[in-house]
Amino acid sequence: MNVSRRTRIQKTYEALFALEDVREIFRRSLPTGLDGGEEREFSEALARVRGIIDGIEDGGGELPSGRVCDGIEVRSREEDYININPIQAAGRLTPEARKAIISYGDGYSTCDHCRKPFRLDKIGRPPVEAFHRELAEFLSMDVARVVPGARRGFQAVTQSLLEKGDFVIVSSLAHYTEFLAVEVAGGVVREVPLDEDNKVTAEAVAEKIEKVKAETGSLPRLMMIDHFDYQFGNEHEVRGIGKVAKDYGIPFLYNGAYTVGVMPVDGKEIGADFVVGSGHKSMAAVAPSGVLATTEEWAERVFRTTEMTGDVTNRRFGIKEVENMGCTLMGATLISMIASFPRVKARTAAWDEEVAKSNRFLRELSRIDGTRVLSELPRRHTLSKVDTTDSFDTVAKTHKRRGYFLSDELKERGIIGEFAGATRVWKLNTYGLTSDQVDYAAGSFLEIAEGYGLKIS
Question: What is the rounded CA–CA span in Å between residue 197 and residue 377?
Answer without folding.
Answer: 10
